């Protein structure tokens, strides 16, 4: 489920072939599924499937409960479920128009809390926060508990790239000039997609190892 979530979260790559007309160096991915964009249904479907697969993965990690018991693994499972729910909400409540492209579209939000005026901004923020929590918790589980060993190095490297891209976005958003925010976000989201796939593979390998260890323990007990 996590591998499928990672694949579907990469639906924005299809813009290379569908040609929305947006500049990938400067546009945000949320613009691809805004109200008046062509092929928006493709990206909405990709995000909804990402959310569904993430929710199924969260359920699978917690059922049976014996699959994850320590606080890091449980936190990661809950967080990926929150990411799934937020991503579905994000896809179903897109931005209505694009400033500078759609007539009559305001250039920016007004008020102290623009998230309350644009629900899409809130759901996007919740999704990013949730997957960051999942990344941190799963990485701690990999390093401190020995779970999901593949996340220790490959997943850790991808996580570092995601963090750097996020810092790039946060810094550039507060500075004047052209800092390729669109590229930074594509690196960030691409890294998140790859990390989800890494986590799925790590869980599969860990699960086989855990079952083998349990079978060996049972055989030893029978022999005794």
From TrEMBL:
It holds the Pfam family DUF998. Keywords: Membrane, Transmembrane, Transmembrane helix. Signal peptide: none annotated. The chain crosses the membrane at residues 42-61, 73-93, 119-143, 150-171, 183-204. The keyword Cell membrane does not apply. InterPro entries: DUF998. This is DUF998 domain-containing protein.
